[in-house]
Amino acid sequence: MNIIERYDRDILYYEFQELKKISFVNHLFSSKIGWNSENIIENISKIFNVSKSNVLYLTQIHSNHIEIIDEKTLNYGKILGKEGDGLITDLSNIVLMTYHADCVPIYFLDKEKRVVGLAHGGWRGSFENISGNMIRTFIEKFNSNPKDILVAIGPSIGPCCYEISKELGDKFIKKYNDFQDILIKRDSSIYLDLWKLNYLQVRKMGILDENIISSNACTSCNIDKFYSYRKEATQDRMVAAISLS
């Protein structure tokens, strides 16, 4: 796995080394250890050293809809009632958070404009190109240059484990006929590579190859550390989080 284990007391979480090097950004991906549905917000608040009211998340609906939090956002609490699967902000000490248990967490950082974003990319959101839509929003709303944007693809179900139907595979091939190897055939089964799909989507939007980082961590293969809906049929979730300090 291309991520680093960190402990805060008895709480285990993960970080990308490349993002950790950047002084004005904090981020993490949680685990099974030290986290539960009751303490997620409290843990995030402590680790990021922000008020609980500054931890923002959406009602996720497996879409490509994105909410922006900026100086025009007068009431952070209203964000919590909104539906969507992507968040972007240029404000300091605002933690963006998404919930995951196999779906892909995708972190975004414009190093020059100091803007961060976070997306929840299940197969539906990835099919609707939420990653590409995030980059487009950075460009249109914050005048970002794609060459300045880092993208990190976090722990999620990998192509080793994510078996899909032929019908769904055909939909992906039809929509993304210019993308190579997003489907893998093994024996009589078809597997979807969500990591590669999101990688190719941001590459198509102009993100440099050297600015795309993948954890290569499969939640289904590592249920000692991660929750996996596909493997365990669990209702528990991990969270991804990112903020500007």
Question: What does this 3D model show about the protein?
Answer:
- The chain is α+β, with helices and mostly antiparallel strands and 245 residues long.
- It has one domain: 4-Layer Sandwich (CNF1/YfiH-like putative cysteine hydrolases), CATH 3.60.140.10.
- Helices cover 23% and strands 29% of the residues.
- The strands form three sheets. A six-stranded mixed sheet has the order 1-2-3-15-7-4.
- Helix 4 (130-142) runs parallel beside helix 6 (194-204).
- It is globular.
- The two termini are 26 Å apart.
- The relative contact order is 0.20.
* Beta strand %: 25-35%
The CATH superfamily is known as CNF1/YfiH-like putative cysteine hydrolases
Work out the helix count. Answer: 7
Largest sheet: 6 strands, mixed
CATH class reads Alpha Beta
Q: Which fold name fills CATH's third level, the topology?
A: CNF1/YfiH-like putative cysteine hydrolases
Helix content: 10-25%
Round the mean pLDDT to the nearest integer and report it.
Answer: 96
Based on secondary structure, the structural category is alpha+beta
Global shape: globular
N-to-C span: 26 Å
CATH architecture: 4-Layer Sandwich
- How many individual β-strands? 15
Number of domains: 1
The radius of gyration is: 17 Å
Secondary-structure element pattern, one letter each:
EEHEHEEEEEEHHEEHEEHEHE
Lateral strand order in the biggest sheet? 1-2-3-15-7-4
**Low-pLDDT ranges:** none
